[in-house]
Write a structure and sequence with these properties.
Elements lengths: L10 E4 L2 E4 L9 H8 L18 E7 L5 E7 L12 E3 L12 H8 L9 H18 L5 H8 L9 H11 L6 H17 L5 E5 L2 E5 L3 H10 L4 E3 L5 H6 L7 E4 L9 E3 L3 E5 L4 H11 L1 H8 L4 H6 L2 H7 L6 H7 L3 E6 L2 E6 L4 E3 L2 E2 L5 E9 L5 E5 L14 E8 L5 E9 L6 E2 L1 H7 L6 H14 L10 H20 L2 H12 L1
Parallel strand pairs: 1-5, 7-9, 8-9
Antiparallel strand pairs: 1-2, 3-4, 3-5, 6-7, 10-11, 11-16, 12-13, 12-16, 14-15, 17-18, 18-19, 19-20
This protein binds flavin-adenine dinucleotide and FE2/S2 (inorganic) cluster (2 copies).
């Protein structure tokens, strides 16, 4: 096996300053490290579960092109060990003496803060957006700002002045301090890149951050019971909310081979370690509905960290990506030691959070077929809120039609309707071999009750879930056959 350098220490930049961490607990969060060790208390703890954004910080990484890119993440659910090789920027880094960053000054000018608890988090989301806009030469509109700030909650100011501040700051250039931070990262981070595995052992616990897929597979063969960690948007909560002790963690976020996103003639390849945001263009290339679905997963902070592999690995019955992957006929690529295997993704889910993943095995990526000209596809997310909410029901459909408009193949899957993301065989049978008409849809809507026995819970009752699932199938029919205006009317009826 690849020999890990035992007890190596994470090295990173905190703002402009280099840091090397001695971690007594390999699952110590970035938020704990900042507030308790560094006494940087601008970063707040609101929920400790990735929901409120009060803990938002910026992570800078230097690409192979030498360009430093920032992303906003929730410090409360990221482990400090994952900072290795990165730059961590907090609200304390932005001002230069008395001179505030433009986003801070704009918040002051627009009266965008009252109690102030949420303000550092908003500042950091706005700072990352400001940096991205300056790099791209882009000017954001109100909708773009709303999307960017959807993961930051404010209980007292109201959002209009905050959004106004972000819009006002957009016309200001990046200040010298922001350029200084960027230059420091560009100079220091390449020297911190590792070719070997970072290995921490403390308090009887182990944390490994392999740099290659071979190293990851070897480590997993050695520690088959290890917890795999990707973006930590599920695993982080096991520690902060469930207070689980994770004895051995293998972090996959530094494995370059898992991040690949490649368009090939018949399909898209998305590596298990690609974040939702990194994979957004691929999803948009597959279908606009998929890009819209991804835009509604969590918040920007969650999509900046959460990965497709993590969504599949977590195997939640309400994970948003799975119905679409099943309907599209995606193939899952797994690896155990040196051996790889491929399976249709629907075969991966065996029971409630039970999967076909063997001990010592990991997900490498997903191959997602492109749509043919005679195929129709849609996926919808129904939840109580538009942003930052978990689905009550999430269906996905792919129909293949012949020249006469007869359905030759139907693939339908739902999240939120069973203990696993599951296909609807009886509904598919009610469609196959029939013309794609309102009568066929009515028969298929009835068949949905034979495929699923949805649960009642705080998100939705069983009756509501079934009714919504039926109406969404009708919406899909209208969307693929009727003028667009009619579909929008119906979409509102379904939501009501
Ligand atoms: C505030 C908030 C909002 C959220 N909103 C949504 C939402 O709207 N829709 C939604 O679907 N989810 C949502 N989630 C859940 C979560 O973001 C997703 O499930 C995400 O895809 C998890 O990815 P990750 O990289 O963070 O996984 P991690 O937390 O790192 O890992 C999750 C699981 O997958 C396993 N795993 C990770 N990588 C691999 C791999 N390569 N091979 C095998 N197993 C692996 C881990 O061991 C673990 O069991 C939300 C979470 C939070 C905190
Ligand atoms: S403390 Fe609420 S998102 Fe981190
Ligand atoms: S200013 Fe009080 S929570 Fe936003």
């Amino acid at each position: 096996m690849t020999q890990a350098s035992v007890s190596s220490r994470p090295r990173f930049l905190l703002g402009l300053e280099p840091r090397t961490l001695d971690l007594a607990d390999p699952t110590r969060t970035v938020l704990e490290y900042l507030r308790l060790d560094e006494r940087r208390r601008g970063t707040k703890e609101g929920c400790a579960e990735g929901d409120c954004g009060a803990c938002t910080v910026a992570l800078g990484e230097c690409g192979a092109d030498g360009v430093v890119r920032y992303r906003a993440v929730n410090a409360c659910i990221q482990f400090a060990a994952t900072l290795d090789g990165k730059q961590l920027v907090t609200v304390e880094d932005l001002a230069e003496g008395e001179r505030l960053h433009p986003v801070q000054q704009a918040l002051v000018d627009a009266h965008g803060s009252q109690c102030g608890f949420c303000t550092p988090g908003f500042v950091m989301s706005m700072y990352v957006g400001h940096e991205a806009d300056k790099a791209a030469g882009a000017t954001p509109d109100r909708q773009a700002i709303n999307d960017r700030l959807a993961g930051n909650l404010c209980r007292c100011t109201g959002y209009r002045p905050i959004v106004d501040a972000a819009l006002a700051a957009a016309s200001e250039p990046a200040p010298a301090q922001a350029d200084r931070l960027r230059a420091a990262a560009a100079a220091a981070l390449p020297a911190l890149a590792r070719a070997d595995t970072l290995a921490i052992e403390a308090d009887g616990r182990r944390y490994f951050a392999p740099a290659t897929l071979d190293q990851a597979a070897d480590l997993l063969a050695q520690w088959p019971g290890a917890t795999l960690l990707a973006g930590g948007t599920d695993v982080g909560l096991w520690v902060t909310k469930l207070h689980k002790r994770l004895d051995t963690v293998i972090y996959l976020g530094d494995v370059v081979e898992l991040k690949g996103i490649v368009e090939r003639p018949g399909h898209w390849w998305i590596g298990a370690g690609a974040t939702y945001n990194e994979a957004l263009a691929a999803f948009a290339g597959l279908h606009p509905d998929l890009a819209e679905l991804v835009r509604r997963i969590g918040s920007l902070q969650i999509r900046n960290a959460g990965t497709l592999g993590g969504n599949i690995g977590n195997a939640s019955p309400i994970g948003d990506s799975m119905p679409a992957l099943i309907a599209l006929g995606a193939q899952l690529h797994l690896r155990r030691g040196a051996a790889g295997r491929v399976m249709p993704i629907e075969d991966y889910f065996l029971g409630y959070r039970r999967t076909a993943l063997q001990p010592g095995e990991l997900i490498v990526g997903v191959e997602i077929p492109k749509l043919a000209a005679n195929q129709r596809f849609a996926t919808y997310k129904v939840s109580k809120r538009f942003d930052q909410d978990i689905s009550a029901v999430c269906p996905a459909y792919r129909l293949t039609l012949d020249d006469q408009g007869v359905i030759t193949e139907a693939r339908i899957a739902h999240g939120g309707m069973a203990a696993i993301p599951a296909r609807a065989p009886r509904t598919e049978a009610a469609l196959t071999g029939r013309p794609w008409t309102a009568e066929t849809v009515a028969a298929a809507m009835a068949a949905l009750a034979d495929d699923y026995a949805p649960i009642d819970d705080m998100r939705a009752s069983a009756g509501y879930r079934l009714k919504v699932a039926r109406n969404l199938l009708r919406r899909f029919h209208l969307a693929t056959t009727a003028p667009q205006t009619r579909v929008h009317v119906l979409a509102k009826e379904v939501a009501a």
